[in-house]
Specification:
Layout (H helix, E strand, L loop, with lengths): L6 H22 L8 E3 L6 E3 H17 L4 E4 L6 H6 L6 E9 L1 H5 L6 E8 L2 E9 L4 E5 L5 E5 L2 E8 L2 E8 L4 H5 L5 E3 L5 E3 L5 H9 L5 E4 L4 H13 L3 E4 L14 E4 L2 H7 L4
Parallel strand pairs: 3-4
Antiparallel strand pairs: 1-2, 4-5, 5-6, 6-7, 7-8, 8-9, 9-10, 11-12, 13-15, 14-15
Helix pairs in contact: 1-2, 6-7
Length: 273
């Protein structure tokens, strides 16, 4: 992805996510009326006015930065213009979920985030998450670690032989205590720890990366959710498997995504799922 992305672009995306959080998303949080909430495919598949306005804002800011890049957003995916731009000459595509965890957002649950990925030939290369309530910014560059930031605190999260390492770059790791303070987990029938009714893919993959759960298992894959989920899991050193194989994820992938904290957990699960 030479010349398409530079480190300084991450600061631009960080400012964009902070701005959309402050000016659009958080003013709606706890203040949604019935007129602001809409059903999509079912009563549990919701979209709000905040989702729609946030995506419009993010899309405009991303296009200001990179004009010749396609865009796939959750709230505009059925739009004919978006379908057309998917097939343009550019090999690069932004994916965006303006509010991942909309049901949580509607119910005043703080477990929601905004997710963006930049894909090359449909494969996620760079991904960013922002948790508005916690003011935590996360990013990864298809590498061997992920970075989590809160104000002047910046930490690296990676694995060595299945062991999680959370290393301060600047400041401390204490802000993670706030992020996971009321995070609920459960033990499954195999004795493994997974999230409990989380309904936020972005939060779940950061919990996995940080060693709070043993695995995540997702069906009904979408470009806006699972481009960043795949990238954060892979970059933090987790075992990532698509439909039972080691195939590389692309945003047209269908089926199942299994991410485990180690090969040991993977071997325990793979024959039982």
């Amino acid at each position: 992805m030479e010349n398409i992305f530079q480190e300084k672009d991450t600061q631009y995306i960080k400012k964009t996510l902070e701005s959309v959080s402050k000016n659009i998303i958080l003013p709606f949080y706890g203040n949604l009326s019935k007129e602001h909430i809409f059903k999509k495919s079912s009563k549990n598949d919701l979209v709000t006015e905040a989702d729609k306005l946030a995506e419009i804002f993010i899309k405009s800011k991303l296009f200001e930065r990179k004009k010749d890049v396609n865009f796939i957003g959750e709230e505009s995916y059925d739009n004919e213009l978006i379908k057309e731009t998917k097939n343009t000459y550019s090999p690069f595509t932004w994916t965006c979920d303006p509010i991942d965890g909309t049901n949580n957002f509607v119910n005043n649950n703080d477990k929601f985030c905004t997710m963006i990925s930049l894909c090359e030939n449909k494969i996620p290369k760079y991904s960013w998450l922002y948790f508005p309530i916690f003011e935590i910014f996360c990013y990864c560059f298809d590498s061997k670690s992920i970075i989590l930031c809160y104000k002047n605190n910046r930490i690296s999260v990676y694995r060595e032989k299945g062991i999680v390492n959370i290393v301060p770059i600047t400041g401390s790791t204490l802000f993670l205590d706030n992020l996971f303070s009321n995070f609920q987990t459960r033990k499954d029938s195999y004795g493994l720890i997974t999230s409990k009714n989380l309904k936020c893919a972005g939060f779940e993959v950061i919990a996995l990366a940080c060693g709070k759960i043993d695995y995540l298992h997702h069906f009904n894959l979408t470009p806006w959710d699972h481009s960043p989920v795949y990238n954060f899991a892979k970059s933090s050193g987790c075992k990532v498997v698509l439909n039972g194989s080691k195939k590389t994820f692309n945003f047209d992938t269908k089926g199942q995504l299994l991410c485990t904290s180690s090969n040991f957990i993977y071997n325990k699960l793979i024959n039982k799922l």
